[in-house]
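Hi everyone, sorry if this is the wrong subforum. Our group has a chain we'd like a structural model of before ordering constructs, and none of us has done structure prediction before. Sequence below.
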Amino acid sequence: MSAVTTTGRTDRGLPAPMLVGGAFVLSTVANIAFQAGNILFTDNDPHGPEGPIASIVSISAVGGLALAVALAVALPLVRRPGGAKAGAIVLGALALVAVPFFWSGAPAVFGATAAWLAGLARGGQPQSGAARAFGIIGIVVAILGVVAVFAGNLAAIFG
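Answer:
Right subforum, don't worry. Here is the predicted structure as tokens:
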């Protein structure tokens, strides 16, 4: 069975809103929830430097900004094949550049949005060349970003 139908649209995978929204929820929102749990269930000083409150503020700001930028780039470009190709490349590159900020969920959001524009989401028009490569890189970065958020927080809890 082929992943592409005769119309040229991808018929497997997650729909674009679930792909991008899921990346945001599983990285940014989950990390905020871990920090809130740190406040609620530990005796750590939440107001300390690099404490949970400061972390919540920085995660929210950077993660929210990444989502806004990703959608601002993607929404106008997704309907035009040439625009979608350029957007996939730009957002895939942003996912790689944002890797040091994995704690915010920014790389996951940029990567998932690059995958969407590259046609890797259900109903998407599959792209070729560099756009497809950056879409694949983007989805890998998104998955690794989610794993890093959960692994880092679970290691902090149990380690």
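For your construct planning: The chain is about 70% helix and 0% strand. The mean pLDDT is 91.
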